[in-house]
Design goal:
This protein is mostly helical. It has two domains: about 10-70; about 80-150. A two-stranded antiparallel ribbon has the order 1-2. Helix 2 (about 25-35) crosses helix 4, helix 5 packs antiparallel against helix 8 and helix 6 runs antiparallel to helix 7. The relative contact order is 0.13. The radius of gyration is 17 Å and the shape is elongated. The chain has helices spanning about 10-15, 25-35, 40-45, 55-65, 85-100, 105-115, 120-135, 140-150; strands spanning about 10, 65-70.
Amino acid sequence: MRPDLILFRTAKGEEIAHSHSHEISANHRRALLVVDGKTSVANIARKVFWVSDVVAVLKELYALELIHDDISTIQGEVSQTGGAGLLLKVKLANLAREVLGNNANRVIKKIEDADGTPEALDDALLACRKLIKLTINDELADIFLQRGRTLIGK
């Protein structure tokens, strides 16, 4: 594994990272949690002293398709990067397309412009709700907010 690679969690990796299942070992889970879409393999290996043989563990996570080095494998068009935040933004953009159809572009732009933290995304969802209420209707605004908050764990 090249030391300059930037690794991202896949959807499956996100799911396992945030669940309490025993699908992977504790050592693997600790390594999976530090994969953030920003840090290179070399920097992870240098910083993560609590994971034994971190590069070998990262290779195993890669083989299990829990992490990947190609951001294009994550579906959606999002301009900002950031591991879990990126994945949440992609999921919210897909939700906007599903709920709003052709009217989703301005909502997606608000989501893309937000930071990837759950708090910032919740603020963006509230702003999107207001926009949807003003431009489409109250019912879709409430549906979008409720489903969006479920996605971000609020």
